[in-house]
Amino acid sequence: MKNSRWQWMEYAGLFSLFLTLISLAVGVTINFRPLYVFDIGHLQILDYTSLDQETLLKNFDHLMNYLNNPFKTILSLPDFPVSASGAHHFYEVKILFLVDYAVFFITLIPSILFIKYLQKNDRLWRLIRPFQIGMLLPVVFGFFMMIGFDRFFILFHETFFNNDDWLFDPVTDPIINVLPEEFFMHSFILFFVLLELFFAVFLFLGKNSLKQTKKKELV
């Protein structure tokens, strides 16, 4: 009975750790401003607006401040009009941002305690199989994304949004002209790369722990 209880606690710990790492990867990705700065040049975004780069980034920062700040309730951009449907979509995106942050902070301490428990009991090797499996998931999703990002992008929105407000009209919401689909593709790539790196770290910890345990047994 005791072993069963500890087993379920380890499952809960693993679940918490995965949520922490996934939410961290999401948080880093959505706030990685250098990616947008890079894409302004790489995707020639300035060709689709009359704004210069400095002004465009000022608007981008206003948008990100709205999405990240739970106390900011009205979206207002200096140089872009926002329709009612556009504002509603950004509000829904804001909710997803805040949910991600909540998941990270709620699971962070349990995840740290779980890692400390594994270290104390020489059970970091328990991370090996879950993270071996976990590292396959970004590869699989990344593969489907690369062979058909348009479909992947649509499925993503259909999963997380229950309306069509994400289908912006460039006439009423010209900001969509400076947020091209390719930028979001690059964001997904960054997310999957970060997730692979985070998972690889814990896979390494697990394998290193197993190696140390075997050395102790030989002594």
TrEMBL record:
Name of this protein: Integral membrane protein
Stored Pfam families: Lit
Q: Which keywords has UniProt assigned to this entry?
A: Membrane, Transmembrane, Transmembrane helix
Q: Which organism is it from?
A: Enterococcus faecium
Keyword check for Transmembrane:
yes
> Which stretches are transmembrane?
95-115, 136-156, 183-206
Q: What InterPro entries does UniProt report for this protein, alphabetically? A: Lit
